Amino acid sequence: MAEDTGHYVLEVPLDASHIKNFTPERTVKVVAYARDGAVASSGVATFQPNGHGHAELRFDRKPAGLRVAIGPETASYADLAHLQTLTFTVLPSQWRDGDRLRAPAVMISPFYWEWWLVWCRDYTITGRLLCADGSPVPGATVCAFDVDWWWWWSSEEQVGCAVTDANGAFQMTFRRCCGWFWWWWWEQRNWRVDPVLADHIVPLLQKSAGIRNVPPPGPTPDLKVFGSLLSQTSGQSHIPGLAAAQVRRGGARPSFNPADLETLRSDLLTVLPASDELGRLRLWPWWPWWPWLDCDADIVFRATQNCNGQNTVVLDESVLQARWDIPSQLNVTLVANDQACCLAQPCQDGDCPAGNCIVPIDICYLTAASVGGNPGASSAPATIGYANPGGASPGAPFGDQPFSESVLLSANVGDAFDADYYEFEWTTTPAVPSSWSPMPAGADGAFYRAFWDATLTSHSVLFAAQPVGSPSGIRNVFESRQHYAANNSIGIGWDNSNLNTLMSWQTTVFANGVYYLRLKGWTRPGYGGDLADPRVIPFCDTEEDNFAVVALDNRPPPGPGAGHPTDHPCGGGTVHLCTTQPDCNIFSATIGGQSVGYCANVTGVLDSDPVEISFMAHDPDAVLAYFALDCTYGLNSVVDIICSNNGVPTPGAGVVTGSLSAGPAASNATSWIGPAAQIGPDYGTALTQGAAPPQWTGGTFTLTTTVGALFPEVSCAYQLQLWTYKRNIVDCGGATYYNLTELSFTVTKA
What we know:
Blueprint: H1 2-5, E1 8-15, E2 28-33, E3 39-47, E4 52-59, E5 66-72, H2 77-82, E6 86-90, E7 100-102, E8 106-107, H3 110-118, E9 120-130, E10 140-150, E11 153-163, E12 169-177, H4 182-187, E13 192-193, H5 195-206, H6 224-234, H7 240-245, H8 261-269, H9 276-280, E14 299-307, E15 310-316, E16 329-335, E17 362-363, E18 403-404, E19 406-410, E20 421-427, E21 437-438, E22 444-445, E23 447-452, E24 458-463, E25 466-470, E26 473-479, H10 481-487, E27 493-494, E28 501-506, E29 513-523, E30 532-536, E31 548-552, E32 583-591, E33 594-596, E34 600-605, E35 610-618, E36 624-633, E37 637-642, E38 644-645, E39 648-649, E40 659-662, E41 666-667, E42 672-673, H11 683-688, E43 698-706, H12 707-710, E44 715-726, E45 729-730, E46 738-749
Parallel strand pairs: 1-7, 1-8, 9-16, 18-45, 34-46
Antiparallel strand pairs: 1-4, 2-3, 2-5, 3-4, 5-6, 9-12, 10-11, 10-14, 11-13, 14-15, 17-19, 19-28, 20-21, 20-26, 20-29, 22-28, 23-24, 23-27, 25-26, 29-30, 29-31, 32-33, 32-35, 35-43, 36-37, 36-44, 38-39, 40-43, 41-42, 44-46
C-alpha cells in the first residue's frame, strides 16, 4: 500500500515555451501549502532550452489537500502564499491511482515571466543623520517606514533600521514586494488617524457649501464617514459606491473590500470640493489608490537616540515628507531636531581663530553683538548690557531687555588656548583696575558637558567651580575642557551641547544694575599643585582684555516678603501673583453710570451707554513690556480690547474697542501709583510717546468705551482679564515675569 511507503510525489510540469527569447537559466520555486497554510513541501524547477521543465514535491504521507503556488526562486514562502501568482489546488481524491501524481502542465505566460522579475525589489538606503549645524548625530537608531495613506488614515510598515556611526552615517537594506492579495495586505496594517492629513481635509470640507456637518475622524477606517458626506451632498438614501464597498468578511479581515473603494471614489469626486493640493499629496479620493499592487516604496524616517541618559525622538517625519517611489539605491541626509546630541567637529573653515585667545562672549544664546556695550553691539549708554538694544517699535516691545536669574555665558576660544583652569571676575567700574572681584559663592553656577566613547555611548561630566590654591589664596575655578580632555579619555569626542559653555551665572546674589565680567586663566598641570600664571585672556585678533557687560533686573520671589499691596488679593486661591514686578489691578468699573464691583449684577443698560474702566499696570523697575485687556464671556468667547488677539496676550494690537488715556492717581497699601506718563500699551509705542529708553513704568489708565462694544449679549456673565508683562530675559528665556488680574460681573441690557 502507498500509505506504508511514506513517500508521495507530486510532479508539477511547467511550460514556458511561449516566452519570447526564452533562456533556460532562470529557475522557479514551487511550494505546496497544506489546508492550515503551513508549507507541506517545496522544490525548484529547472527548464530545458525548449521551455519545458518540472518540479517534484515529496510528502511523508498522503496530503489531505494542497494549494500549490509558483514563482521566482528568490521568493520566500510567505511571498508565494500571499502574492498574486500562478496557483492550482490538489484534492485528496486525485491520489486514488497510487503514490505518484502528475498535475496538469502549468502554462507560464509572458506576463508572469516578466512580473516575477519585478514583484520583489531589493533596496539599499544609505545616509547621514546630522544636527542643523551639520555636526553628526552618533549612536542614533534610524528606522525607515513604508507609509500608505488614504483619506485621514495612515499606516506604516517598518522596513529597516540601522545605528549611526561616529559620522552620523548609516546603511540599511530591505526587500519589498507588491501584487499582494488585497485582504492579506490589509490584515498586516494598523491604521490610525493622521492629524496631518485631517488638518488638510477637514478645513476643505468645512468650506464646502453642501456639507453641513463634518464627521469627526475615527481611530480606524470606517466607511460611515463617506455615507454621511454623500447623504448630505446628494440626498440619496442609497449610495451605489458605498453599497459596493460594504462587503462583509469573517475573521480579522476588514468590514469592506478596499479593492472596491474605486467605485466609492467615483461617487465622492462628484460631491467633494476639488483640491489640486490633495491630489499632489496622492491622497484618496483625490488620487487613485491600490497600494497592494504598488511596486514602489514610499519612505519616511524616524530616529531615536539615547541622549544624556534618556531615549529621545530626534527625527519624526510625517506623511507630507514621504519620499515617493524611491530608487533601489537611495542616499539621504536627515536633519535631527534640537533634542539630538551631536558630536562636536574639529575646527574647520576658520571656525577656531588662531592664538591663545577668546572670541566675544555669548550671553544667553545671544551673540555679543546683540547685547549693548559688548563687541559689535550698540554703545549707547542707556542700553549698555541690555539685549536687543534699540530694537523696540510700536507693536514689538521686546527691545532693551535686561537679564534675570540664570545667565549662560559661552564662547569659542583660539586654537592655542592654554588655560588649564579659569574663573570669571566682575566689576561695575571697569575703568578702575583694582575693582575686579572674584565671583561670590553660589554665583558661579555649574553645567554639564558630555562626550562619546568608542561604543557611541554618551557620558555626562559635571563642570563646577572648585576651590584650588593660588598665590593670592583659594580661588574657585572651572577646569577647561581642553585640560579635561588632555588628562582623561573622552572617546571619539565631545558632544556639541554646551561645548563652549563657560559658566551658568547665578545673578540673584547681585543687586540690580550693569555688570562687567572678564575671564581669567590659570595654569595647573595635571590635578596636583596650586594655580599659577594668572592672566586675563585677550580677545582674538586684538590685544584687548576680554569682557562681557550685562544688565541685571531680578525680582524678589513672589510671596509675602515681596511687598505686594493688600488692596487686591494675591497668592493661593487667586490668579494673581504676590509681586509688584509687575503688578496690575482693576480699581473700578462704571457701566451706564452704575459702579461695578466683583460679582456685581448690572441691569437696565443700553448699548449706547458709556463704560469706564480704571486700572493699573506698573513695574517699579521700569522694565514694563506691555499690558493686555480682554473680556471673556459665554462659551469660549472673547472681546479683545487692548493689545490682545482672541484672548491671548499679544502685543501690538492696540485699543480696538474704545479709547485709552492716563488714569487718576491711585493709592494702595504701599505706594501711590501715578497716572501713566506714556499710555503705550506696549514699550515700543511708549518710546514714541516720550519714554526714555530703557525705561517705562506704566502707571494708571482709564479705558472709555460703550456697552455695545464690550458686552455683546443681552444678558451674560463677563470677566475682564488684565495681563501685564515685563521685558526681562529670565533664565535665558525659560521663564517670564508677568501678572494677571480678573474681575467678573453680570450685565443685563434693557
